[in-house]
Amino acid sequence: MNTTYLNELLDHLLEMQERDSLEQALRDLLTPAELAEVCNRLQILRMLEAGVPQREIAKQLGVGIATVTRGARALKIKQQQRLT
Question: Kind and range of the H or E element at 2?
């Protein structure tokens, strides 16, 4: 991933000062399917943090177990970084 482009994206989103503006910016940048996927991934992280089993998360959100496992790995890395 090009870090310059990522920084531009982050700067663009940070310019949004209201919830409606941020929502519109996301809708402008993402397809409806992409936006739904991002929302699901956030819910996966929140459910994992709450201790919900991976298979239950997959079932509730209608996603594959691999998607949930990916979220679990990301969460584990995040937790390890906090400890160091």
Answer: none
**17-53: pLDDT as tens digits:** 999 999 999 999 999 999 999 999 999 999 999 999 9
Instruction: Give the model confidence (pLDDT) of 73-84 as tens digits.
Output: 998 998 888 887
The two three-digit tokens of residue 55, written as one number? 């298979």
First to last CA, the chain: 25
What pTM did the predictor assign? Answer: 0.82
Q: Which amino acid is at 37?
A: E
Farthest CA pair distance, the chain = 38
Q: How far is CA 12 from each of CA 2, 6, 8, 39, 46, rounded to the nearest angstrom?
A: 15, 10, 6, 19, 25
CA 67 from centre of chain: 11
Residue 61 contacts residue 40 (beta carbons within 8 Å) = yes
